[in-house]
Amino acid sequence: MRAWLFQDSRQKRKLGEDDCPWSVGWMEKGRRRSKKVGSRSMAEKYRRKKEGELANNLVDPLCNRAKWTEAKELFLAHAKTHCRYKTVIDYTAIVTKFEKLIKPKRAEDLSRTAIDRYVELRKSERRKLEKPPLSVSTLNKELRVLRAMVNLAAEEELLTKAPTVKLLKEPEREVVFITDDQFTELYKAAESMKRPADRHYKPADWWRALLVFLYTTGWRIGQTLDVRRENLDLEAGTVFARAETTKGNRDARIQLTPMAIDHLLAIKDFYPLVFAWTNHPDTLSKDFVALKKAANVEIPGRFHNLRRGFATNNASILPADVLQHVMQHRDAATTRRYINQAERMRQTEISGLIHCPKLPAQA
Description:
By secondary structure, the protein is mainly α. It is built from 15 helices and 6 strands. The protein has 3 domains: 54 residues, no CATH class; 89 residues; 168 residues, Intergrase catalytic core (hpI Integrase, Chain A, Orthogonal Bundle).
């Protein structure tokens, strides 16, 4: 029952049960509310009215008691159970940022209004720091995390109903990727690399094997660095990735190209990981930036551009469902972006072949 009838005990002792007025009580926003009405029949009528108001406003007294910390701890505990370590770190950072900007106290503060305000504060925060504005894709990444949080809170009845979290509309931009010519320059510039220096082969061999592997498989850098020796069969020419090392949380086995096999044979050693990087993790990205500079390749981003290069180059060769499987995309729309990019490139190439009428000579 959302609302109830009662008589105040003090008034009841003072006036007697027959003359004591009746009151209506209810829970709202985690607090007990009441109103003195009068006769029992009038109080009953007011109780029904109040229950209707509470139902229409979707105010659930049990949900309103839930604290923000309960929703936060529930979500992060769920993430630790079902997500990879890096994903948990990202989720924690986003939830902490929301907590810092919005300062929620109850679970119900995780509302659509609060989320919209969070987006505005994130934008203004960058302006105050005189930093470049956040990209729409970054904001949408944070909104997806908050959407997952409100859905879980509603599922566990910390919220009466999960608010609708709408993503921002992202402009459709051309996919930035490494071309064959740029790849060739990176391959040649690998001779200048100094790390890893603790192997029996040259650092250039390690970098060239990594570049070829990424460019001919389309794998993400994270799952590539997690490939173990026992999951690599150079005789059969296959490599296997365990589900827990992939973003899509699915096993992946692919056939390697002869070029990739030759380069992997050149870096055989006794490390359990095929591409073991024994230096600080941050140095890998810094070294790739140095490699681009040495190759005079001016392109934003890091290793993911090799994955985009694989997708764009093979979008016109492989069927859409096969490309989606190889790229390990959960959503076919993501694969479709690369197919659209390849189609636009073909349109550019045939622009010189399109028939144009002859124009009369100008006097």
